[in-house]
Amino acid sequence: MKLSREAEQYILDSQEELKQLIRDLCAIPAPSHHEEKRAAFCKAWFEKNGGKNVMIDAAQNVICPYRVTEDNELVVIMAHTDTVFPDIAPMPFREENGRMLCPGVTDDTANLAVMMICARYILQKAPPTKTGVLFVANSCEEGLGNLKGSRAIVAEYGSRVKELVTLDGANLTAVVTRAVGSHRYRVRAATGGGHSFRDFGKPSAIAILAELVRELYRVEVPAAGDSRTTYNVGVINGGTSVNTIAQSAELLYEYRSDDPRCLAEMEGIFQAVLAKCSPEAGTLSAERIGERPCAGQVDEGAMDDLIGRAAAAVREATGREPVFTSGSTDCNIPLAAGIPAVCLGVCAGGGCHTREEWLDPASLADGCRLFLEFFGHYLEN
What pTM, to 2 d.p., does this model score? Predict the structure, then answer.
């Protein structure tokens, strides 16, 4: 559908305010499990801009309901408040060469800001919708946040949710339709240790982990159809000093797949490698610290309809063809529960998950158009 002249004018008139909202949000640190300040900001913003009965739940999700009754069917539209970075002090923000640069500026701050600005248009214009709508600024999407916010929404409202859409990423044409599941482990090695000269030859926890990493990177990943499976050792730490045989060391390891069969096969492979690398002197143990599911049984017709509407919104807003892809997003939880879900990006930029992350603010108007084009399906004729 074509946006109304009123909606187009609102988008144009809101661009400077949208950019300022991004600046304001970037100034509020929000590592996973510590989003309280950003959640409080979002709650106050929604209340100031037309939201009624806005709440923060136990998972630190900010929930702004629209035309929600006690038992009506719901659509959930969400964008996450946390960033992948652990910083608890404001991260450096600058603008140069037509870009906004800040860790987390696209993932997911700009997407969150677009949702908020577009939700305000709906809240203040009060159009009738076919279902109730929950606008959610959700917590704990990144890393070891383990999708806590999305899990809480599905646990609370799942039986009523018709479909869920999350806004994430830095590509206006990307439509994530397949859930990449993952298992994440903390692996610890422990030995007696000793002095690097006097006790030379005794087992080292670091050497044990080094051998494990070598074996993990020799693994041939399973395949099923057009699936993709990956693995990564992301963090290693341990030891005492340069002249000490390490008594303890640990690493963080994950494997991912968009096919549940491959994910299960990787679990068996991982356990076999652990057993192979288990030292005669010392210990090697693994603790699962995160799990994201692949998709479950979702009604194909309902999912195809949702994907088709998302694709049409991308074409209408950008004039380009959508790119369908797999991803690990807040959609994993509803898809695992059989609820149709897709992920859309409503901004463009690059360097996600790096300190050099950047946003193209010129993309924000098209991001707003994409959002409101897509949302038009929920309006009563």
Answer: 0.92
